[in-house]
Amino acid sequence: MSNELISAADEARRLLRGFKAFEEVAQALELAGTAVQAHAEANAAIDALKPQIEAAKAELVKIKSATKAEHDKAQKTIEAATRQSDLVVKEAQSKAEDCLAAARLTLANAKVEADELTAAAADVLERANEARDAVAAETEQLQAKLDTLKAQAAVLLGA
Fold it and tell me: How do the domains of the chain map onto residue ranges?
């Protein structure tokens, strides 16, 4: 009898191990079912979002196209402005060079004229000095004659 009880206990343990295996299988199936359900829900959410994603992609393409068009337009405007500013700068440089050349020519002419006037003034000053010296010499001669005449008149009057 004791063998029967021991055998029954062994059988019960074997059955218990089998049930534990069923419990593990049930947990694994539940976990797999949850994962499959989550996957299905994620796919459903993705499918629900696809129209919005496609609309967003289309809007992005539209925005990129508009942005590129605006960029190209801005680039052309910048290029045109750069060409125009280059022309303005070249024209200003040319005018500045012309003004500088005219100023240099005017300065050179003024220097020549100033040199000529300085030479003429020096010539006039030299002639004025010569004339002054001549007048001084003549004045001395006249003063000497006057002194001689005074002396003669004093002799004639005083005699």
Answer: 1-129
